[in-house]
Amino acid sequence: MEPIKPFLKTLFIAASIGSLYFVPWILVKAWILPLPDTVQEQVDEAIEHGFDGMIVYVDEAGKPPAFYAGGWNDRANKIPANPKSLFKIASISKLYVAVAVTKLVKEGRLNFNETLVEYFPDLIGRIENAERITLEMMIQHRSGIPNYTDNAAFWNKGEEDNTDPLEFALDLPASFAPGNGYEYSNTNYLLLRRIMNKVLAQDHKYYIQDKILNRLNLKNTFFSIAEVDLDDVMSGYYVGYEEDFKADDYGMLATAEDVGIFLRALNDGSVFDKGEKEIYPYVYNHGGLVVGYQSLAEYHQDIDAVVVQFINTTDFNGYEWNLSEINFSRIIKILRRKN
Predict the structure, then answer these.
(1) pLDDT tens digit string along 20-69?
(2) Domain ranges of the chain
(3) Which of 91, 130, 227, 275 fits 222 for a cystine, CB–CB 3.0-4.6 Å?
(4) pTM, entire model
(5) How far apart are CA 24 and CA 176, in angstroms?
């Protein structure tokens, strides 16, 4: 092979050095710092990366649950983070919906193979392939229905605009043919909730309350900001803004402990009745992200531990989500090392 010419070598080296300018050093730093001895030290380290506040709940089998917190619950009023605070869990709520749909299928009130148009025939021609999209495809994000939160118009609408969120997913081309791909889409679960409402002839939240929350004695899980005292909710912040976003309604709220109890029950099967776990079609861990709030909830079988992490700082154009994942992975490493 002909040697690389000197000027090409110089060009390659210059390009390599130049590319370092674009390396997200905050992520590199978060990865390479020596691993602390304790979860609390890791939480404190994460706050130094720029997070306003953090809550971590750890449930290791055979041990009492552990709670950790750092930073601010309320930045303006200098109120420290409280591990018992309510938090907007965003897409973690999809796990509750998936369990509820599974229970309705086992009861014979729904069928995973039923199609979208069997419940909403008016969506023919407005959601491509609606007559071929099944409930199971929607649960698993294999429907090809566009994600309404990916539509810039959804975020540009004013606070007084009461446009149905579904409108931002209608009359758009499918991302792929039903069942022939995967794309995370909040529209799937918007529709699943409405299907449950139709079948139940009432808000699906009452079914989830009865079949999941009451069963697990979860007294600190709610469906709307309107159901709680705002003073009990952790503040939420977006990088570059002083505003506190906790008054905005983004669906379910819960304490880290309640989410952890639910996640343990989902993974060990105790949230299910006979025959339900075997047909459950969705995942067993989840994250959530809305303005001001990001969360991760996972069960790790090798250490038989549930870990829930809440962070009240977001930046959709920055590295906050990546930082949260790095921090979470380091917490798991600390727990593994202890075991």
Answers:
(1) 344 577 788 877 889 999 999 999 999 999 999 999 999 999 999 999 99
(2) 26-338
(3) 227
(4) 0.91
(5) 33
